[in-house]
Design a protein that fits this description.
About 25% of the residues lie in helices and about 30% in strands. The chain contains three helices and twelve strands. It has helices at about 1-25, 50-65, 205-215, and strands spanning about 70-80, 85, 105, 110-115, 120, 130, 135-140, 145-150, 155-165, 170-175, 180-185, 190-195. The strands form three sheets. It has a five-stranded antiparallel sheet with strand order 1-12-11-10-9. The longest helix is centred in the first third of the chain and has 25 residues, at about 1-25.
Length: about 220
Amino acid sequence: MSKFILFFLSLILFFSCEKKDKKINETSIDSTSLEIPPPPNTYNEFPSPQERLEKWVDYYKSKEADFKLENFQKVDTFKVFNQPATAIPSFSSKFDQRYQTFLTYNADSSKYVDIDSYLLRFSDNGKVDYNTDQEIVLVDLNQKKAHRILFYGPSFWVEDAFFKNDSTLMLLENNNDRVPGYQEINLNTMISTAYTYKDTLSFDSKYYSARVHQILNKNQKIIP
């Protein structure tokens, strides 16, 4: 009798384990479903941040052959303070989707930098007009927070911006004095290190407007 009971309990245990294994297999997660989709940004489909920087340097080099990054020198280090942003972030229902393609995301699309929404205005005929000032906005999509980190008047402007890595934001700049510069902002400490070109250039940069038209035309070629 005891042998029969033992055999019966063994059968119950066997079918119970088989059913449990089957349930686990049926509900297993496909790893592909965990992949983060790329941001909806045609302009930022460059292989790496390095290529973004090279396009900027190549533009200036096409105007002055001896232009190179080695000619920039460190001029300042300062704290960047977060302030309320004026530009409407993409997670808001009031966000104008026409600005979506101008946003520059970090590697995992959890953050983006916006250098255009405040400066650009879309006219009724679909073209863009330019404001006199420029707001640099850093947006954290996970926390749904948008901060103004810098604000520029008409004599200074950021021509392009991108995430060098997870903790560094790069701002490529110019001004009315024809002296380009760039900033490296540590996103952990919010300390910015500023660099400026050693010489005054002989031409007015059109890189910003060229970049805007490149995005609008969905063309990967910078207009000289």
